Task: inverse folding
């Protein structure tokens, strides 16, 4: 993967995904390895995302790299009207790799074409967020002991949630059975379903969360945003059907793990946090190991 | 009813040098004129629509004098009139005749329908993969969203 930009999850093959996950497991055992000393990582956040930025910066620091960049475009030359092309060309001179988040879809692909150094996409509008996908895969493999043949439920906004789209696409390589729980207005789009159909995998659609709980190994929860509904009454009608409460887990499988890309609003009640099946906080921590693995692989030191 | 190619062409008179775009779906004739900017050329442009056609029932036809289309222009024609045939005329004779073909990828001529796509916000040349030629669907190389037939706009 040396020098290979990561813009979309499908830029890397199934084998490359596995290599990253294996390397991440190594970093989980030995997180501090100063193998990137003398290397500069640029984190360019054209829109703020503290969680993702800190995770990357922590990963870079644990590898001994220096971090430069900005945390939102108000504090950068972008505010003065500089084009993305010019910003990327300039930063290419100062850094060995660019990690970027940008509000426009396709910005990371474009940056990877103009940059002289590799680019890692840390989110481009509603399009892709591949490092989240890899950390989700890592979390699934770690808690279930495998990626193959699992029953995985996706709950909430399946229409606009880019996290869901990328993870569904990646899991199509692993004989996954998909359980898709959403309001009718927020179903998984056909452009994503086509990947499931192409691989002849099974998927089931539900509108009620309770129906799916006993069947699955992973419950991947997402946030439903009010703005996504054209009619606020529709939102009021469905909002409580997609809230996970601790007592609802009584019928779940013993190996079930609950995941969430965070931040959550109210879709998982606080009483679930103490349940050993809750995994969302560890899931976020796994992001650091996965990002260490990516930086090390792309920069060619692992 | 038997009508040869010459007979049909007589419905709109012949040209000396230039290109005939034949077998255009009737509803696309005005769109083809627009996307090729034929409303602004100085040379003679003749067009007809709702003409009889053995192949299509009814068809449209456009004849442009002294005009030989570039590959980008031919791709545009293919996108809005996939049934079209291009006939190059030199000295009143058919010099070349071919069906237009929708290419596998399209550069710079089409706008991405997604207003939040980087190509609509920075000076970036658009690029699409044609994922469905029958029911025209173009996947943006940048934002990965799909521009469908009804949303296609040209630069
Ligand atoms: Zn686009």
Result:
């Amino acid at each position: 993967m040396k020098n290979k930009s990561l813009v979309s999850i499908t830029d890397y093959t199934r084998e490359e995904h596995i290599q990253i996950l294996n390397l991440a497991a190594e970093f989980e055992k030995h997180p501090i390895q100063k193998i990137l000393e003398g290397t500069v990582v640029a984190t360019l956040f054209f829109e703020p995302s503290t969680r993702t930025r800190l995770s990357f910066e922590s990963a870079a620091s644990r590898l001994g790299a220096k971090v430069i960049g900005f945390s939102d475009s108000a504090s950068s030359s972008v505010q003065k009207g500089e084009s993305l092309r010019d910003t990327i060309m300039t930063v290419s001179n100062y850094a060995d790799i660019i990690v970027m988040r940008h509000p426009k879809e396709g910005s990371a692909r474009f940056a990877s074409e103009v940059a002289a150094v590799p680019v890692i996409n840390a989110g481009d509008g509603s399009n892709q967020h591949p490092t989240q996908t890899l950390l989700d895969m890592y979390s699934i493999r770690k808690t279930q002991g495998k990626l193959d043949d699992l029953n995985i439920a996706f709950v909430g906004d399946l229409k606009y949630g880019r996290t869901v789209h990328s993870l569904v696409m990646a899991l199509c390589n692993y004989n996954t059975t998909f359980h898709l729980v959403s309001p009718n207005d927020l179903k998984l789009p056909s452009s994503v379903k086509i990947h499931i159909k192409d691989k002849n995998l099974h998927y089931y659609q539900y509108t009620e969360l309770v129906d799916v709980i006993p069947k699955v190994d992973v419950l991947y929860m997402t946030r439903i945003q009010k703005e996504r509904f054209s009619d606020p009454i529709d939102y009021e009608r469905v909002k409580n059907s997609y809230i996970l409460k601790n007592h609802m887990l009584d019928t779940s499988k013993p190996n079930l793990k609950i995941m969430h890309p965070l931040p959550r609003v109210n879709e998982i009640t606080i009483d679930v946090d103490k349940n050993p099946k809750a995994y969302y906080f560890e899931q976020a921590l796994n992001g650091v190991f996965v990002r260490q693995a990516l930086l090390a692989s792309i920069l060619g030191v692992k | 009813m038997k009508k040869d190619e010459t007979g049909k062409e007589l419905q709109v008179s012949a040209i000396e040098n230039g290109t005939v775009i034949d077998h255009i779906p009737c509803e696309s004739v005005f769109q083809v004129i627009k996307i090729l900017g034929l409303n602004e050329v100085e040379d003679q442009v003749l067009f007809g629509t709702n003409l009889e056609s053995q192949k299509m029932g009814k068809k449209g036809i456009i004849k442009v004098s002294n005009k030989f289309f570039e590959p980008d222009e031919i791709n545009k024609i293919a996108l809005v009139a996939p049934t079209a045939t291009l006939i190059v005329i030199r000295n009143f004779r058919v010099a070349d005749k071919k069906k237009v073909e929708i290419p596998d990828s399209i550069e710079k001529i089409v706008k991405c329908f997604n207003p939040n796509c980087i190509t609509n916000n920075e000076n970036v040349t658009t690029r699409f993969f044609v994922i469905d030629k029958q029911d025209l669907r173009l996947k943006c190389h940048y934002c990965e969203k799909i521009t469908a037939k009804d949303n296609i706009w040209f630069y």
Strands of chain A lie at 40-45, 66-70, 97-102, 119-124, 151-155, 177-181, 203-206, 218-221, 257-259. The interface with chain B takes residues 8, 83-85, 102-107, 109-110, 124-128, 191 of chain A (CB under 8 Å). The radius of gyration of chain A is 19 Å.
